[in-house]
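Handout, section 4.2: multi-component inputs.
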Amino acid sequence: MLPIEAEALSYAAGGVAILQDVSLRIEAGPPLLILGPNGAGKSVLLRLLHGLLRPGRGRITPEAPTRGAMVFQRPVLLRRSVGANIRYPLALAGLPWAERRRRAAAALEEVGLAALADRPARRLSGGEQQRLALARAAALAPPVLFLDEPCASLDPAATRAVEEIIAGIAARGTKIVMTTHDLGQARRLAGEVVFLHRGRVVEAGPARPFFNGPASAEAAAFLQGDLLW
Amino acid sequence: MDVQDLGSAFVAAMALVRHGDPDMLAILGLSLRVSLAALGIAALVGLPLGALLAVARFPGRRAVVVALNALMGLPPVVAGLMIYLLLSRSGPLGAWGLLFTPQAMVIAQAVLITPILAALSRQVLEALWEEYAETLRSFGAGPWRAVPTLLWDGRFALLTVLLAGFGRASAEVGAVILVGGNIEGATRTMTTAIALETSKGDLPLALALGLVLMVIVLGVNALAQLLRDAALRRAG
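Output:
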């Protein structure tokens, strides 16, 4: 699956250009954080890379119905038990019954939800739901995992828990590609950064230099917390 | 019709129930068997059809949805007449010899409520599909694979849909009286018995039967609601 190569992607919705001429390469390694102000096109870029949307122009290789797995900003949990939520995509992936149970148990253990396996998933708290969504995606052992603002509506404690889970998934060799509007979180997790502004890639590269001294005025303003339009 | 009639209807209803009047029990049993069988058949056809319509996108889909919604209002007596023509001895299915049998009544009620189940489940499951579509696609499940998922995850809402179908089937009189014939001991149901007693002028008995029917329907609904609540508590 890796590297994923996006070449000159453009995407428009309702006549409004959302992404223009976006090229990037996703390789194995530490987490890639996609940063940028609201409306920069981060979520659309994730959906294009995952395969949920088709680019208007440009192409993404390898070509596949979907690439890797994805966790949405507001995850949709099935109206089933916590355990059944994890087993469902594993069944779709064609894994045998015993393997589904084994992986589901391990994934729940990892996110600290093992004791809640038989609970209705939609009765969990926000933080627990997000952890379950992460476990559900991670149980697929995807080569790449796309995360769209995984901590957007979580309190600091739940955010910490989710970050630890993400770091754990990354440590096991899954490439993390995520968006966030939390710069502290970006600094903690990022190995690489892509900075988007108005639907274009303004900067891309290793995280440390980007945070220490961005090359572009837009990124510098963004990092200082200035409003960007 | 006055208060006295109503009072004697209650007395008659109580007497019917207390003595476990065997004729009434047989009629009641047949009514329930016919309506439940019709509900079973209609559910096997209508729920998957509704789910398919919820996820499928094809030219003419809107027309199908509109037609289905219109069929919900199909007058029972018209449905009964069509089944009658099909099953009558000179009709295309006359050789089956089903006219004036309970099976004919099952067919009529199933025809009547299948569009109801399909249209209502389409509505319920389309909302669920809107919520699930992106997630299921992310897992690699297309619309076809989503159908069983939606039917299962929408099971609590679908129970209400089934109740609506059962209510319509068990309350229906026009179709079963045409294709069943209201034959005593064979095809007499609660509703056709009520119609008969009313036309004979035995209003207290008609009312009593009506009260019993209402209590039964209420009981079925209450039971289904209890089951639903219990299952919801367990499964969310």
